[in-house]
Write a structure and sequence with these properties.
With 237 residues, the chain is of the alpha/beta class. 39% of the residues lie in helices and 12% in strands. The model has no long low-confidence stretch (mean pLDDT 97). The structure holds iron/sulfur cluster (SF4).
């Protein structure tokens, strides 16, 4: 466990300005705001990972939402995707409360950390391949710091899956070739030459497009979280 290392990393991520297009976008959104949040002071910076430094389970999304994480400064906090994710984490016993409204709302995750391969809100939720690749070094460093305790990862959606696999390889796990394809409920074990394997599970993204249409139901999400928690050695209900 490296508490100081991870908090230092989070601070460094929050100060990153490596992608000019995303810096412009996140700051413009923070200035112009959405009418419903007109009285908010938006975060308007990269959003670091959220959760304990000795997490056994990591959830990897895509990128912060313009008026969610980019507003509140915490992963999946203040948007519809987060409403679904945190409710499910609470339902299976991995979060202290079912809602995530502000960074100071007291929410705690139990053995779980949430991060993303791209830390800045992108226009239309679509980072470019260059932005994705530029941000990867932050994920590689985060994985390196979590590695002593990390045993399972849930990747939300195909973009996150494609973005994260090279990061796992760079961080030292053995990623099979050809690379395993994303599938909801899919599972692959990444060998670690120096320790236990890391269990990688795919799950449809908790986007409104998936949850409103029923492509991803709350029970489907809870089931993936329960399976991942079991592989991570966490107790879920
Ligand atoms: S997306 Fe990542 S690399 Fe690019 S500016 Fe944001 S934090 Fe930095």
């Amino acid at each position: 466990m490296d508490i100081s290392g991870l908090s230092v990393l989070d601070q460094r991520i929050a100060g990153c300005r490596a992608c000019p297009r995303l810096v412009d976008w996140r700051e413009e959104v923070a200035r112009t705001k959405r009418a419903a949040f007109a009285d908010w002071t938006y975060w308007g910076r990269p959003v670091p990972g959220f959760g304990p430094p000795d997490a056994r389970l990591l959830i990897v999304g895509l990128a912060p939402a313009a008026h969610g994480g980019n507003r509140t400064g915490r992963m999946f906090t203040g948007d519809r995707s987060g409403d679904v994710l945190y409710q499910a984490l609470y339902d299976v016993g991995l979060a202290s409360q079912p809602t995530a409204v502000t960074a100071g709302d007291g929410l705690e995750l139990y053995g779980v950390r949430i991060t993303s391969p791209v830390h800045c809100a992108p226009p239309a939720n679509k980072p470019t391949p260059t932005e994705r690749d530029t941000c990867r070094s932050w994920l590689v460093q985060e994985l390196g710091l979590l590695r002593p305790t990390l045993r399972a990862v849930v990747v939300l959606g195909a973009f996150g899956w494609q973005a994260a696999l090279p990061a796992f390889a760079e961080a030292g796990w053995t990623v099979p070739r050809p690379r395993p394809a994303f599938a909801h409920g899919g599972h692959v074990a990444l060998d670690d030459p120096d320790g236990p394997a890391l269990h990688l599970l795919g799950c449809f993204h908790v986007s409104q497009r998936n949850t409103f249409t029923g492509r991803l139901t709350p029970e489907m999400l809870r089931q993936v979280l329960r399976t991942a928690a079991g592989k991570a050695g966490l107790t879920a209900r």
